[in-house]
Amino acid sequence: MEVAEAFSLISRAIDGGHAAHGYLIVGDLKGGCAELTDLILRKLFPNEIAQVESGSHPDIIRLEPQGKSRTIKVERDKGDDGPGMRDGLVVPMETTAFSGGWKVGIIVGADRMQNAAANAFLKSLEEPPPKTLYLMLTDQPDAILPTIVSRSQRIDLPLSEDLLDGDVREEIAAAFADRDAASLAVLLTGLKADAEDVDIPIVRKRFFRTLMSFVRELMLGGRLPAYRAYRNVEAIEDAFRQSERAMNDEAVLSFMLDRIAFPE
User: Fold this and answer.
1) What is the pTM of this model?
2) Residues 233-258: pLDDT tens digits?
3) Do the bridges between strand 153-156 and strand 22-26 make them parallel or antiparallel, or are there none, so unpaired?
4) If you compute the radius of gyration of the chain from its CA atoms, what whole number of angstroms results?
């Protein structure tokens, strides 16, 4: 579904008084998800556009992954750069709207909620006050608690960077399973060499998204405990950021594999 079509659907539901309490918006977090969220906020707060644009509107509560693990915890830990689920979203959303109208809770990277945080949010999603809307943004919907998914209306937007597939995916999977950093680096170098300069960031992102899909499969299959699975996610995200800084691919991938936990 394109962004314009999704917005039209949600807009009609709001106007008709039958909007869902929660929308699970699946797509690129900084692309379609952000664009659709902005359109919804502009519709709900047409007289406070400046506050919407600056991110300072008191009735718009935004929560993102925090800390070194880049997860959403139920409570804030020492060293985190932002609040946890309870003080960052649940409690603020229970207060009366300053403007007397809508309150919107936005969870960026909803798949990064730890179990305790997801369960705390679930209670709010099940019994929200009137004129409360939750927008859950994710590019990994399979990692979200099924009870949250079942209580939300899912909106699937186009993903601009798909996972790699075919023979190259199988080669990456084999090298990953063998913990072979040199082979992974050769595959990544080959992909970048075949791409136009302008497309190299997209190729790099597809490569690391493909690696992420492997650790997601381990997590969703119950083959690893949650804390080890989250560390795997963190290791791949760190490697992706390091690769963006033009660091040596083999060194980056070798360090990543040293941190990855595989089933015994």
Assistant:
1) 0.66
2) 888 888 988 888 877 899 999 999 99
3) parallel
4) 20
